[in-house]
Amino acid sequence: MSISSIHIEAGKMGFFGHNDRTRPTKNSIFEAKNWHSKSAKDAIILYKNELAKRTQSYLKNHPTRKKLHSKTITQLSAIVNLNHDHKAKNLKPLLEYLEKSLDTRIIQASIHRDEGHISDDGIPVKNYHAHIEFMGIDSQGNSIRRKLSQSYLSELQNQTAQILNMQRGTNYTRERKPRPKRLNTYEYKAQAKRLQEQRLRLSPYPNIITNIKSWITPEPESHQAKQKELKLEISKLRAELKVWGAKRADYAKLEALNKKLNDKIKNKDLTILQLQKELKAPKKNISSTNENDKIKKLADLAAQEINKLKEELEAKDYQLQKQERTINIFKQELLSYRGSDRQIMRKQLSDLQFENKELKREIEVLKNKPLPNPKNSKEYKTLQMEYDKLYSSFLKISQEQTSELQKGISPRP
User: Fold this and answer.
1) What phi and psi, each to the nearest 5 degrees, are found at residue 174?
2) What is the DSSP string of 141-184?
3) Which one, of 373, 371, 367, lies nearest residue 313 by Cα?
4) What is the pLDDT of residues 103-137, one digit of tens each?
5) Measured between alpha carbons, how far is 263 from 200 in angstroms, rounded to an integer?
6) What is residue 112's three-state secondary structure?
C-alpha cells in the first residue's frame, strides 16, 4: 500500500490537456484505463467562467482596483498518491473537502494509471496518482494560497489519508529536517540523468569478480592445437595412468582419444582450449581428489572474502550517492533561505560535504585493499610442493616409457 500524500502547486492551462491525455506525454508508458471528470476543452471553459465571476467579486470588494494583481495565482494544482484500486468515488470526498475548506471550485480531476517506470530488474513499477485542478482565488476573489498555512496543510494530509484509507506520510519541519524542494517530472528526470553521469565518472570500484577469476581459473589461449602439444599431454596422461594403476581398458580409451584428437589437429579443427577440455575427462578419473578439494576450499574462502569486500564497496557507494543527492538538494534550498536559517543550512551543508569527503577516502582505501589470494597461503604452498614432487616422478616415468617405446616395447598396464 502506498503512503498518502497531497502536494499543491501553481497550476497551468496546459495541465488540463495532460490530465485527459489530449496533450502528448512521455510519462505514459503502460496500457491502462485512466479517468477524468472533464475534457480539457470543457475544463478551460469552466475555468474562464469561474475566473470572470471571482474577478468581479474581487473588484466589487476593492472599488479602487481595476484588475487582479498581476502576481495572483488563479489556478492551483494538487497531485495525490493513490492505490491501484482507487476510483473516482474514492476521490470525490476529497474534492468536496477542498471546495468547502478553501471556498474554491474544482475545475477538473483525473486519475492516472498509465505512468511509472521499469526497474533495473525489468519489473514494471506503476505510479498511481490523481491530478486535481481548482481555482486559486475564492468566491470573494481573495488568494487561496494565503489560506495554505502549515496547520491547514498538516490537517489536509490527515484528511487525505483518512478519506483514501491510506497510511499517512510524515510532516517536514524546519527544526527537524529542512523541507526538500519538490521536483516536477522534467526536473526529476534531468537530476536522475546528472546522477547517472556522475556515477559513471566515479567508476566506484574495479570488477572484483573478473580479478578473482583471473587467478583462480585463468583462461588459456585459444590458438590452434599442434601435434607436439597433444603428444606432450598424452605422454603426461600415460605416466599418470601408470602411477595410479590404470587397467588395459583405460589405456585403450586413451589411445582412442589420441587418434580422435590427432585427426582433428590434421584438419585444423582443434584449438588449445578445446584440447584441454577434451583431456579433462581422463584427468578427472586419475587426479587426487583430496588435493583438489583442499585447493577448492582455499579458493572458496578467498572468494567469500572478496564478496564481502564487494558488498562493503557497494554499500559505501550507495551511501555516497545518497549523500550527494542530499548535498544537491541542500545547495538548491540554500538559495531560498535568509538570515539565521541560511547560516544553519550552510553549517549542515558543510558537515555533509566533510562526511562526503571522508566517505570517498574510505572507498579509495577499500579499492586499494589487496585481494586475498589462496596461492599465498601455507596450505597452498605445501600442496604445490607435493604436486611438483609428483610431477617430477611423472616426467621420469614418461621418459622411461618413451625410451621403451623407441625400443619397440609396448607399455604394460
Assistant:
1) -65, -35
2) S-BGGGG--HHHHHHHHHHHHHHHT-EEPPPP-TTTSPPPPPP-
3) 367
4) 999 999 999 999 988 776 677 888 999 999 999 99
5) 50
6) strand
Mean pLDDT by 10 residues, the chain (413 residues): 88 93 85 93 96 94 87 94 94 96 96 84 84 96 93 94 89 51 64 61 43 46 75 79 69 84 84 76 51 59 69 76 77 70 74 79 74 62 61 58 48 38
Exposed, middle or buried: residue 401 (CB in 10 Å: 0-12, 13-18, 19+)? Answer: middle
Whether the CB-CB separation of 91 and 111 falls below 8 Å is answered with yes
DSSP string, 203-256: --S--HHHHHHHHHSPPPP-PBP-HHHHHHHHHHHHHHHHHTT--HHHHHHHHH
Q: Which CB contacts under 8 angstroms, 24+ apart, belong to 282-291?
A: 282/237, 282/250, 282/253, 282/254, 282/257, 283/237, 283/240, 285/250, 286/237, 286/240, 286/241, 286/244, 286/246, 287/240, 291/383, 291/386, 291/387
Residues linked to residue 227 through DSSP beta bridges, in sequence order: none
Is residue 87 packed enough to be buried (19+ CB in 10 Å), middle (13-18) or exposed (0-12)?
A: exposed
The amino acid sitting at 173 is T
Burial of 99 (0-12, 13-18, 19+ CB in 10 A): middle
What's the first-to-final CA gap in the chain, in angstroms? 74
Q: Tell me, what's the pLDDT at 132?
A: 97
